[in-house]
Design brief:
By secondary structure, this protein is an alpha/beta fold. The termini are close together. It comes from Virgisporangium aurantiacum. InterPro entries: LRR_dom_sf. This is Leucine Rich repeat-containing protein.
Length: about 200
């Protein structure tokens, strides 16, 4: 993925005013996204091994009234991922995209801290799906999710590719009845530690 050069993808939204889905995959080397107004786009996704805070800032500053699905693959510092939990505060506050129903903060190196932030985030009350998959989530982050605001209104909670103990995975499923909780693809840490699903 780090070899895919992308460019200024906001220009696609300028060029196609009726575009409804935009999914971007590639490296931070050439990726940019300036604030834009687009009345039609419903799904926006950035799949990277490391997402820069400049992309996040451009997204959050955009006027996207129809947006229902936002997916950010946060990645690792080595491949340009410099977003922090604090940087995500405007998005997690819930006012940026009031129509948002599905939020993916995936492939995160800081998945436990991210889960704790999501557990208290106002945006969650309006969501039907939360996706924290592909990252380094462990028992600490999962416990924070369960200790935070109620999540039983969700249709789906995607945590696949994780580092949870079997007991914690079972607890998540048991304590969120009626929610499709995906705790598949359990990983084991390497000698150097945990890893995201996608980096290079």
């Amino acid at each position: 993925m780090s070899w895919i050069k992308v460019g200024a993808v906001h220009r696609l939204l300028d060029a196609y005013p009726r575009l409804r889905v935009l999914r971007v995959r590639g490296s931070m080397d050439t990726l940019s996204f300036a604030p834009v107004r687009h009345a039609a786009v419903r799904e926006l996704a950035f799949e990277t091994g490391g997402l820069g805070r400049g992309i996040l800032a451009g997204v959050v500053a955009s006027d996207l009234p129809a947006l229902e699905h936002l997916e950010l693959w946060l990645g690792v510092d080595r491949y340009g991922g410099d977003i922090t939990v604090d940087d995500l505060a405007p998005l997690l506050g819930g006012a940026t995209f009031p129509g948002l129903r599905r939020l993916g903060l995936r492939n995160a190196e800081f998945a436990d801290r991210l889960a704790a932030a999501v557990a208290a985030a106002p945006v969650v009350a309006g969501l039907t799906e939360v996706d924290l998959s592909l990252g380094m989530l462990g028992d600490e982050g999962a416990a924070a999710l369960l200790a935070g605001q109620p999540l039983t209104h969700l249709r789906r909670l995607d945590l696949h590719h994780h580092f949870l103990s079997a007991a914690m995975a079972d607890r998540l499923v048991a304590e969120l009845p009626g929610v499709d909780v995906d705790v598949s693809d359990r990983q084991s840490a390497e000698e150097w530690g945990r890893f995201t699903a996608v980096s290079e």
